[in-house]
Design a protein that fits this description.
156 residues, alpha+beta, Immunoglobulin-like, 2 domains, four-stranded antiparallel β-sheet
C-alpha cells in the first residue's frame, strides 16, 4: 500500500485569497463610511424642495426687473453694500440678507434688510470667516417677493 500525497490545488488557494481580501476591503470600507459625519447644508431640505416652484417664480420675477439691486463687496473696508434702484420711498422694501457658508451650515449669517434713505445698506463682513460665500438677497415689495444671489470670496 502506497500512501498517496494529496496535491494542493493552486487555483483553490487563489480563489480563497481573493474572497478573503474582498471581504476585508468591503468591511473596512463600510466601517469607514459609517464613521463619517454627514451634516446637511440646509435643515428641513424636504420642505424647501416642495416650495421650490415658488422660488423659481421669485427668481423669474427678479430676472424680469428693469433695474436690479447692486451688490458690491469692498474688501479693503471689509463691508458689503447693497444698493437698490432709485425710487421715492424705500419703506415698502422688507427682507433679509443671508450670507450662506457653502462649507458649513453653522457658518450662515442672516441680517435684516434695512435700507437707508438713499436705498443702500452697508453690512460688515469682518466677522465672517474667509472663503467662499453666497449672498442671498430676498426682499418683498408691493406684496411681491424677489430673490437674487451672488457668490463672493472673502479674504483675510
Amino acid at each position: 500500500m502506497s500512501k498517496e500525497k494529496k496535491a494542493r490545488q493552486p487555483w483553490a488557494i487563489g480563489i480563497t485569497v481573493v474572497i478573503v481580501v474582498f471581504l476585508i476591503v468591503t468591511i473596512t470600507g463600510a466601517i469607514l463610511v459609517s464613521q463619517q459625519e454627514y451634516s446637511l447644508v440646509t435643515e428641513n431640505y424636504y420642505e424647501k424642495d416642495l416650495a421650490y416652484q415658488q422660488e423659481i417664480d421669485t427668481r423669474m420675477r427678479t430676472r424680469d426687473l428693469a433695474e436690479k439691486p447692486v451688490i458690491a463687496l469692498d474688501r479693503a473696508a471689509k463691508s458689503c453694500s447693497i444698493t437698490f434702484p432709485a425710487r421715492e420711498h424705500y419703506d415698502s422694501v422688507q427682507g433679509t440678507v443671508t450670507f450662506f457658508r457653502i462649507s458649513s451650515a453653522r457658518g450662515d449669517h442672516v441680517v435684516p434688510l434695512e435700507l437707508a434713505g438713499n436705498g443702500t445698506q452697508h453690512i460688515s463682513v469682518s466677522g465672517l470667516a474667509p472663503g467662499q460665500w453666497i449672498l442671498k438677497l430676498r426682499w418683498k415689495e408691493n406684496d411681491r417677493e424677489y430673490f437674487m444671489e451672488e457668490r463672493m470670496y472673502l479674504q483675510n
